[in-house]
Design brief:
The protein is an alpha+beta fold. The chain is built from four helices and three strands. A three-stranded antiparallel beta sheet has the order 1-3-2, with helices on one face.
Length: 92
């Protein structure tokens, strides 16, 4: 029998396999990721697993309407900007 993937392996494989062309991440609900995770890991909570990996810097989580998007760190665009940068963009 095949050995099960770890949470990290499963999530990274899901991101690369389930993302639509032109997109770098997956929506946890609309891609079917949450349900697939629960089935593969016998009812375990995908939120806990993804939050743990995000805290370790192995994936990036971005909140979006209806759930969250999951990205590999190398694929996530930076959304952090300083207050000074924001004000400059606003012309203030």
């Amino acid at each position: 029998m095949e050995e099960k993937l770890s949470h990290e392996e499963f999530i990274k494989k899901a991101i690369t396999s389930l993302r639509k062309e032109g997109y770098k991440g997956i929506h946890t609900v609309y891609s079917g990721f949450n349900e697939a995770f629960k089935k593969y890991f016998a009812g375990e909570d995908p939120v806990q697993a993804t939050n743990k990996l995000a805290a370790e810097g192995k994936i990036i989580i971005r909140p979006v309407r209806g759930g969250v998007m999951l990205y590999l760190p190398e694929d996530a665009t930076s959304t952090t900007s300083t207050a000074a940068e924001t004000l400059k963009k606003m012309g203030i």
